[in-house]
Design brief:
The chain is an alpha/beta fold. The protein has a single domain, classed as 3-Layer(aba) Sandwich (Rossmann fold). Helix content is 30%, strand content 27%. The chain has 6 helices and 9 strands. Strands 5-6-7-3-8-9 form a 6-stranded mixed β-sheet, with helices on both faces. The chain is globular, with a radius of gyration of 16 Å. The two termini are 18 Å apart. Bound molecules: adenosine-5'-triphosphate. Adenosine-5'-triphosphate binds next to helix 1. The site of adenosine-5'-triphosphate has 11 residues, from helix 1. GO terms for molecular function: ATP binding. Keywords: ATP-binding, Nucleotide-binding. It holds the Pfam family ABC_tran. This is ATP-binding cassette domain-containing protein.
Length: 199
């Protein structure tokens, strides 16, 4: 479950989020649209506990990869680990068997790059590895910020198909995106504008 109730957040005296309410249930894929600078990234940061609201409450907040996986715009891959090791990380941290890593990389078209380090692949390839890392542990919640922003059309199709399947398998998925291809597979499309969520 992903939830925001009455969330307010001000940066440097500018009120960006002015009472945001939203809820995403297990098995639901919800997209968040809104103009550049409307606060989509700020809201995802609050929901995953990277930041804290001035008032109001959020779920899940700070959590493990298995409870809430995050695909930030900056990706956050560990530079000292190969792509394969990055993707395996949530499973290792949870003490779980490492399985499904090469299948995910292959599904996203980067099956031959698993032994490379992030600096040795393109940003779009890094983005696909970060997506694989976000879904590998079948998290209860998944927050993705512009997950197709750096992908070509074919790679974006594979990414969108994977995100939809993850939701169908029971994860609550919230995606900030400008891409129609992602909105098209959503159960609901929300709009963040003037500091509030509608839709
Ligand atoms: N840590 C911060 N410190 C100061 N201002 C911030 C901070 N985080 C966000 N902001 C401001 O909050 C507003 C919303 O930014 P945010 O990145 O959330 O927008 P966005 O909707 O994700 O935009 P985009 O679609 O371009 O990614 C912007 O005006 C931004 O400058």
């Amino acid at each position: 479950m992903i939830k925001a109730s009455g969330v307010h957040r001000t940066f440097g005296g500018v009120s960006v989020l002015k009472g945001v309410d939203l809820a995403v249930s297990a098995g639901e894929l919800v997209t968040l649209s809104g103009p550049s600078g409307s606060g989509k990234t700020a809201l995802l940061s609050l929901l995953c506990g990277f930041d804290f609201p001035d008032s109001g409450s959020v779920l899940p907040g700070p959590a493990s990869w298995s409870a809430c996986a995050v695909l930030p715009q900056s990706l956050g891959l560990a530079s000292e680990l190969t792509l394969e090791e990055n993707v395996a990380l949530p499973l290792r941290l949870a003490g779980r068997e490492v399985t499904g890593v090469s299948e995910l990389l292959a599904e996203l078209g980067i099956g031959s790059l698993g032994a490379r380090y992030p600096a040795q692949v393109s940003f779009g390839q890094q983005q696909r590895a970060a997506l694989a890392r976000a879904v590998v542990a079948k998290p209860a919640a998944l927050l993705a910020d512009e997950p197709t922003a750096h992908l070509d059309a074919a790679s974006a199709v594979a990414a969108v198909r994977l995100l939809r399947r993850v939701a169908d398998d029971g994860t609550a998925v919230l995606i900030a995106t400008h891409h129609d291809a992602v909105h098209e597979v959503a159960d609901r499309v929300l709009l963040l504008a003037d500091g509030k969520v509608r839709g």
